[in-house]
Amino acid sequence: MKKIIIFLSFLVFFAFPAMAAPIYGYSVNASGTYSGTLNSVLGAHDDNFIQIDNGTVVTVKFQNGFAALANGLSSADLRVHTYDAPAPVNGRIEISANGVDFVNLGIFSDANTNNVIDFDLDALGFSYVTAVRITDISGTSDGFDLDAIEGFNGGTIPVPEPATWMLCAILFFFLKLRK
After folding, report:
1. What is the pLDDT of residue 55?
2. Which fold is adopted by the domain 19-157?
3. Phi and psi at residue 92, in whole multiples of 5°?
4. Of 119, 143, 155, 176, which one's alpha carbon is 20 to 30 angstroms from that of 106?
5. Are 144 and 109 spatial neighbours (Cβ–Cβ below 8 Å)?
6. Nearest-CA neighbor of 41 among 33, 29, 53?
7. pLDDT tens for residues 79-94?
């Protein structure tokens, strides 16, 4: 009976994860040239931005082991904060669950409502995102203005879903009974 109680407690723990808090870019890498201080895109948006030069790729990652999590609702989970000076330009935005393989979300302008570009991870088919990559494709001397990357529901990278844990626990339980 004690094993069953432990097993059920285990399932409840993984079935109801704690609500997550906002998460911001933790590390940044640029391949190419930009204007401004690269680290200004880390942390919460503060109107300190970099201007990414044409063809330059900037990758912002969340802290190791952490991610922007999908919330299961049809609302924004991930936000790119821009800062449009007088000359709006376009950039390609890509996201990644593992920080290596990126999926292209499309071309977006840094001139947008309230200087934000929102993404619903659920609608995109992602459970979580660990990195965002932006490439300036303006073809001009004016560049894409990036202020910050924010995940509204940040937390540790999710463990396998409860069904996987339940299968492992059942196998463990039956193996123990056989002994």
Report:
1. 94
2. Jelly Rolls (2.60.120)
3. -90, 130
4. 155
5. no
6. 29
7. 999 987 677 899 999 9
The confidence band for 160, taking pLDDT boundaries of 50, 70 and 90, is low
Q: Residue 61, CB half-sphere, CA atoms under 13 Å: how many? A: 16
List the structure tokens of 143: 């560049």
Q: How far is CA 59 from CA 135, 144, 167, in A?
A: 9, 13, 37
* Rounded distance between C-alpha atoms, residue 102 and residue 98, angstroms: 8
Is the C-alpha dihedral spanning 82, 120, 123, 127 positive or negative?
Answer: positive
Residue whose tokens read 């790119």: 80
Token pair for 128: 């979580």
- Give which of 163, 155, 157, 77 is closest to 122, Cα–Cα: 77
b/e string for 133-172 if b means 16 or more Cβ within 10 A? Answer: bbbbbbeeebbbbbbbbbbbbbbeeeeeebeebeeebeee
Q: Which of 152, 147, 145, 151 is nearest to 96 (CA)?
A: 151
Q: Is the pTM of this model over 0.85?
A: no
Residue type, 108: F
Angle between helices 162-178 and 2-15 (to 10 degrees): 160
